[in-house]
Amino acid sequence: MNYYVAEGTTQRGPFNEQELAGVGLKPDMLVWHEGMSQWQPASQVPELQPLLKGQPVSAPAAGPSMTGQMPPYITPSYATPYAAFPPPGDISGKKIAAGVCGILFGTFGVHKFIVGLTGGAVTMLVVSLACAAAAPFTCGVTLLAVPVMHIIGIIEGIIYLTKSDADFYQTYIVQKRQWF
């Protein structure tokens, strides 16, 4: 499994588990691998526990004592917004492929299959094929839905291509937004 490591605003990787030991992995360093929804401290990733044995986990700094009140929530040092780190892997290639396919073949939802949004992709495919199949029985009226599906594909393709890699990754890969 390949891991990415974030230190401050710098991302490095991919590293396999053996390479992580040579990188100087610390319990409070942020790590990510394919399948994780967000960056996490290495101390919270079960597969990395053997690499961290004997290393102390840094505790958050204690705030002033507040008698009779709940202490304010202290944001941990590892809770940085995702936008501070570029998306892992070659997300740019997937973004370009999905955008171009949305413009060219948007009628059939191909761009959504590329991104992994199967719900929206199947919807577009079924609507397009069902309307084309029903056209002889409706005097072609159902064919009006096919251009609508294509216009949706064109719009989504343009949106995909104009988003930054980080925004595209966060919106469509992590949050799995189905439409626009």
Description:
This protein is an alpha+beta fold and about 180 residues long. It has two domains: about 60 residues; about 80 residues, no CATH class. It contains seven helices and four strands; from the N terminus they run E-E-H-E-E-H-H-H-H-H-H. Helix 3 runs antiparallel to helix 6. The longest helix is centred in the C-terminal third of the chain and has 18 residues. About 15% of the residues have low confidence.
Low-confidence stretches: 59-84
- Total count of domains: 2
Average pLDDT level: 78
Broad structural category: alpha+beta
- Report the sheet-strand fraction: 5-15%
- Total beta strands: 4
Radius of gyration (CA) equals: 23 Å
Strand order of the largest sheet: 2-1-3-4
What can be said about the biggest beta sheet? Answer: 4 strands, antiparallel
- Give the terminus-to-terminus CA distance: 32 Å
The total count of helices amounts to 7
Measured as a percent range, the helix fraction is 40-55%
* Order of helical and strand elements: EEHEEHHHHHH
Shape: elongated
